[in-house]
Structure formats: C-alpha cells, structure tokens
Amino acid sequence: MSQMDNRQDATRETEEQFRILVQGVTDYAIFMLSPAGVVTSWNVGAERIKGYRQSEIVGEHFSRFYTDEDKAAGAPALILATAAREGRAEREGWRVRKDGSRFWAHVVVDAIRDEAGALVGFAKVTRDITERKEAAAALEKANAALFQAQKMEAIGRLTGGVAHDFNNLLAVISNGLEVLAIQSRTAIDKKMIEGMRRAIDRGASLTQQLLSFARQQPLQAQVYELNALIREFAPMLSRAGNRSTHVELALQPGEAFALVDAARFEAALLNLVVNAVDAMPTGGVVTIATETVQSDLHMAPALPVGRYVRISVSDTGSGMSSEVLAQAFEPFFTTKQPGKGTGLGLSQVYGFITQSGGDVHLSSQPGKGTKVDLYLPLAQPAAAVSVPLVARHETVLLVDDEPDVLGVASELLMSIGYEVVPASSASEAAEILKERRDIGVVFTDITMAHGISGLELARLIRSQYPAIRVVLTSGYSAAPLRDEKSGLGDLIFVQKPYRLADLAKALRA
C-alpha cells in the first residue's frame, strides 16, 4: 500500500472517529449548514434538543428553529451573514422545537472555508440553557425582593425614629397645655388653648400614620372571622363610592379567622377602596374578595410556609406604571394632585399588614386596573382575655430620659393630685425603689438612651416589688409587651403624646 493510501486511510479513520464523537454528544445540538442555511448533518443531541429526526430535517432550512417574530426580523439571515463576515457569531434567544414548544438557546455559528478561502458552509452548536435562564431570573427576582425589603426596612426605621422624636416634642407641648388649661382664667385663653390642642391632635395623627408604616403602632389584635368583619363594614365601604362606582363582595364560603386589630383592618380596607374609587373617575367596580391559600415557593410575595387568608381589593381603573408600583408603599409618595392625598394611605396598609404578620402584594397595569392582595396568617378561633383591675396609689415614680418631658409630665401629674418622684433613667429609678417604700406606681418610658430600658425596669419591679404597679409609655408601639418572651403582656401602656384624661385613666385603672 502506498504512502498516499495510508494517509487517506488515516484521514478516513479520523473523520469516522470525529463523526462518532459528534454523534455521541447528547447535551449539544451539533450540525452543519450549507452556505444558504440548509441543514446537511444532524447529531443525536440535535434530535434530543430540537425534536427532529435526521431524516426529517436534513435538506430543510435552519430558520424553522426560529420564532415567528425573529424570522420576521431577519434574525436567521443576520446570524449567517455575521458568521461569514467575522468567522463566528454567538447569540442567545428563544428557539422552537418540533412540537412548537420554546426553549432558551445559546447558539454558536462558525464559518467553514476550504483551503482557497471559499465559504463551504457553517458549523452550528446549540445548547438548551432554559434552566439556567430560569434560575438567573429567579435569582434576580429574589434579589429585587430583598432590595425592596431592605429599602422599606430602612425607610421604616428612619420614619419611626422621626415620629418617635416628634411624639416627644408633642408630649411636652400637650402636657404643658394641660397645665395651662387648669390655670387659664379668660375665654380667650381657653379658645387659644383649644386651638393648640387641635393642632397637637393633627400632629399626633400624622405621627400615628408614620408609625403605622414603620410597624411601630400599637395594635389591639384579636381573632376575627374576616368574612363577617367585611360584611359588617360593607355599608361604609359602599358609601366610599359614587353613582358611577360600586363595591362588590366576592367572599369565599365558610369562615376565615385571622388575628387582627379590627379598627385598623377596617381602616385599611377603606383606604384601599377610596384609592380604587379615585382611580376610576369615569366609574367602575371595586371588588373585595377573600380566599384561603397555602404559601409556596412561587407565591408573590414570598411568605413563610403556612396557610393565609388573602383579602384582595381590585378595581377596573387607570392602573399604575412599573415605576409607580416600585414606590407605591413609600410614605408621602402620591400621584394625586396637591391637596388630594398625603401619600400615607398605602404606607399605613403596608405597615399594618406586615406588623400583623402578613404581607402585601400590589399588581397593576396602566389602563387595566389595580389589585392589592393582603395576606394574613390563618388563625383558630380564640376566647378574649380580660385584664384584671388593680388598685390606685398616690405616689408616682416618673421615669423619662428627656428632661423636658420629665419636667412637664411631673407638673401634669401633680396638677391632678399625685406626688411625683422624678428619675432621669431606669437605673436611677431602680436605686430610688431601694430607698423608698411609698412608691405605688411607676410610670416609665420604654426606650431610653442610656442604662437599662423601661422593659428591664418593669421586669425588675415584677420580680422584686410585685405590689407596685407599672405603666409604660412610648412614642413607639407596645409591640415588645406582646412578645411572648417578655412576660409583661398584662401591663398598661399609654401611647405618646398622651392627654390628661388618658394619663389619669391609666394611673387609676
């Protein structure tokens, strides 16, 4: 056998080995195209990924793998032209299998030229990366949800801190006014004081709205059957509409119990209905629906595993853009005209629902309406718990680290007949308790900058001075008292800024 024959045999053996190798690859579609884009070879991987047998596809144009929109845009011809010009073209996009289903493909096309440099065809390698794309999309969605949660948490902390400090300022003014009211003599004095009281009330209302968003608003939560609660409140919700807008109920059969503050829940529903009515200036329907759902990995929002009551408020109004949706829950953000809204409506709903252990999901499209889904953990019916009354004492140990609050509150307590022993910290109060035996009530702020907190002082009193009553106050919420680990759930709490009547009622309860 000649040397030429040996080289030909070696070439044929190499080509056969290469063919076997290509045919054995199942994870990649590897095939050849003519210069015009006609399929000339086909491996097992191509059959597995695209669904065509070799006999069905050889001789057909490769454009049949493209979507109709890509074919209309000239994508098949463009990728071949790019590969012919540059030697190689790489793309990602949707491709179509024989059965019509789509998959996300990573495609590489290499130009094949002979020794003279003439184009003889193309080598095309396609990989199905649908799972990778879906995983990347899921990760992006999770990252976006994490960013949104972190942003809302940061805004909530800032908002809660500002509201708390503002509450302290209002408390100083409010308590001072109460003392002045006792000493006022003329009608003009009383009229001015009453006007100042109304201003304080408006300021206090604003701080409560901000604390609601920050999830620092005291909740009077009990287990309610939500369908019954919504039906009872339906007449009020209907009055939020007008002649061209009406409210419809689509409540699931049976009962759905959840632990909520009924008044706050009704306020949240009313807020959402008012928003829906405002979004339908030419009329439409607001639908309130309930459904019991099981949380899962694909649910939006992502919730801990468990059963939830979903309360949906949907409208047929103008809808929102994606940019507006991204900011909808932020305090003071509003698309309404000046004077038509404060931008605190959805913020309060968000704060209330998340503080109640649930979450809120907002979906909307411009021109197609908006849907707000409230998720609350499903609860079992429970009996109400009553708080026993305790006796009144005359000497109050007043604890607050704000000198202005401490001074004015002392005047206020003394004006209604109490003897006041002031302390500027919980640690100082603990020392006073060691020395005096006439303290009947400790009235203390919960949050103090230095030393032990009001909660720690309350625990100390509970263990060492069980006969002394404790009344707690804060510009934040009573949430720490509801913590099962605190053991202080039966203490009386007064929200700042408090009025004389609130204070007297708490101390004499």
UniProtKB/TrEMBL annotation:
Keywords: ATP-binding, Nucleotide-binding, Phosphoprotein
Residues of the Histidine kinase domain: 161-380
Top class in the EC scheme: transferase
Enzyme Commission number: 2.7.13.3
Domain (Response regulatory) ranges: 395-509
PANTHER family the UniProt entry points to: HISTIDINE KINASE, SENSOR HISTIDINE KINASE
Name this polypeptide is given: histidine kinase
Organism in which the protein naturally occurs: Paraburkholderia phenoliruptrix
